[in-house]
Design brief:
With about 190 residues, the protein is α+β, with helices and mostly antiparallel strands. It folds into two domains: about 25-90 and about 160-185, Roll (SH3 type barrels), CATH 2.30.30; about 100-155, no CATH class. The chain is built from four helices and eight strands; from the N terminus they run αβββββαααβββ. The protein has helices at about 5-20, 100-125, 130, 140-155, and strands at about 30-35, 50-60, 65-70, 75-80, 85-90, 160-165, 170-175, 180-185. A six-stranded antiparallel beta sheet has the order 4-3-2-1-5-6, with no helix packed on it. Strands 7-8 form a two-stranded antiparallel ribbon. α2 (about 100-125) runs antiparallel to α4.
Length: about 190
């Protein structure tokens, strides 16, 4: 095998190995989102089951409760029921809390794309001089608003906060078992 190919393979393998070792740690003070299934959900493992969501800063976590401070500073205690999902914020997206700027940039970018689409349409018919009385330049009245609207929608959707699901620590608890109590351990795989 060529030594050059061996070096490339080793360098790719080393860079992929470093990425695989990255881990996300759950520490107090981290921004988290806790999602629990609604009490009336028949099968909480399904994706269509409605979930209650609380976003805030993690204060503590134990086997029965997740304690966090919500965005208003109030302490919120969330019981760790089965299928509780815990997500860790890996940072705000391109827009963060400035959604209006992204909508505005999307609007302008979409309008520019509309101008480009109109220009291509007019030029495909031979240009503005070749159109004559057909008024093919009126296509801009359609492409620019449609592009601006599509750009504003994309700007409003793209760039939200990024979340990474983390496995909460092992859940240990007691549950009634007839006249006795049973020790339960819940580990997520």
């Amino acid at each position: 095998m060529n030594p050059f190919r061996i070096c490339i393979a080793l360098s790719l393998g080393a860079s992929l190995g470093v990425r695989a070792q990255d881990s996300i740690t759950l520490v107090p003070g981290a921004r988290v989102r806790v999602r629990t299934p609604e009490p009336d959900c028949e099968n909480p493992k399904t994706s269509f089951c409605a979930r209650q969501s609380v976003i805030g800063t993690l204060a503590s976590i134990d086997g029965a409760t997740i304690v966090l401070r919500d965005e208003n500073g109030a302490v919120v205690r969330v019981s760790r029921v089965p299928d509780t999902r815990l997500d860790l914020s890996t940072g705000s997206g391109a827009c963060g809390h400035h959604r209006a700027q992204c909508v505005g940039l999307g609007f302008l970018g979409g309008a520019a794309a509309g101008v480009l689409a109109g220009f291509v349409s007019v030029e495909s018919q031979g240009g503005a001089k070749a159109c004559g009385e057909n008024l093919c330049e009126l296509i801009y009245w359609f492409t620019i608003p449609i592009g601006a609207l599509a750009g504003a929608i994309v700007g409003g959707v793209v760039g939200a906060e990024h979340w990474h699901e983390v496995d909460p620590p092992v859940r240990v608890g007691l549950r009634p078992d007839g006249h006795n109590f049973a020790l339960t351990v819940s580990v997520r795989f």
